[in-house]
Design brief:
Keywords: NAD, Oxidoreductase. Its EC number is 1.1.1.31. Belongs to the HIBADH-related family. With 293 residues, the chain is α/β, with parallel strands linked by helices. It has two domains: 162 residues, NAD(P)-binding Rossmann-like Domain (Rossmann fold, 3-Layer(aba) Sandwich), CATH 3.40.50.720; 118 residues, N-(1-d-carboxylethyl)-l-norvaline Dehydrogenase, domain 2. Helices cover 52% and strands 14% of the residues. The chain is built from 14 helices and nine strands. The strands form two sheets. Strands 3-2-1-4-5-6 form a six-stranded parallel β-sheet, with helices on both faces. Strands 7-8-9 form a three-stranded mixed β-sheet. Helix 8 links the parallel strand 8 and strand 9. Helix 1 packs parallel to helix 2 and helix 12 runs antiparallel to helix 13. Bound molecules: NADP nicotinamide-adenine-dinucleotide phosphate.
Amino acid sequence: MRSKLAFIGLGVMGSPMAINLLQSSYTVVGWNRTPNRPLVEKAAQAGVQIFPTIADAVKDADFIFICVSDVEDVKAVIFGEGGIADNAKSNALIVDFSTIGTTAARDISAQLQPRNLRFMDAPVSGGDIGAQKGTLTIMVGGDKADFDQCLPLLQTMGKKIVYCGTVGNGQAVKLCNQVLCAVHMVALCEAMQVAEQLDLDPNLMIEVCSSGAAGSWALSNLGAKIAESDFAPGFMIKHILKDLRLVQESLADTDINLPGVKLSDRLFKIVQDMGGSEQGTQAMIRAYKESSM
Ligand code: NAP
């Protein structure tokens, strides 16, 4: 019997990741809450068999991958009525790619154990482009034997796949990653503003600075988009705000002070209030250009 793979959540990230999983030569089936989205159609055309319910999608699956939005969404697809927990076969391995923070990942794992279901947190970095190209960074928390078993499948979706230790540790690394992304965006927006004020071609600044000590993924991949006022996502502002909320929640019991996180949170919220919730994170520049801050 060949292993069967199910993918729950075929959005910006999930759809291309499920398509890349087809390279594993296992059968890949999928489910999306809203079935008639273009990205779901794209996955279907590539060969992912789409089922109308979670139960149908997961009942025979040995590995169940999830990529939905927030904590409550992951809990809904796992523990909600007709969800994974009630329908997966015993000992199935559930791998969650969503960014949901350490506490939620550990809670979910603890609730699944008595139901004989295995769980790993495996948040990703690399954006929609990394998901399409199969070059994501995947940071995994969970049992090492589960990680080893799943690694060949993760390798169809990612280039750098790192075992980070116990369940929740993938999420912990991912929260650090999101702090870097959010604060880098402040630096990028401010460099773009300075370039404009000094009458520089922004693309010249991007080209030169990308190759030196100031180079960053944000500068190389999102600088040109800011120059062209291209705010299509990529990674949506509503998702980075979720992640900054998760960072702050996870540190609520500490006295750590993160002024860069607070500033980037405030700037993203200004753009959210302008209706930019579903624009890419590079739309932070709108806070500089269209508000008095
Ligand atoms: P997205 O395009 O908005 O997709 C979200 C997916 O979750 C959709 O399939 C959506 O279904 C589903 N969903 C949301 N709430 C649900 C619920 N309550 N029940 C069932 N399904 C639900 O988002 P994305 O960009 O793929 O992001 C997914 C996750 O990856 C997030 O945790 C995000 O932080 C993380 N991530 C994203 C990026 C990126 O660059 N985009 C990079 C790294 C990590 P519908 O189609 O029905 O709405």
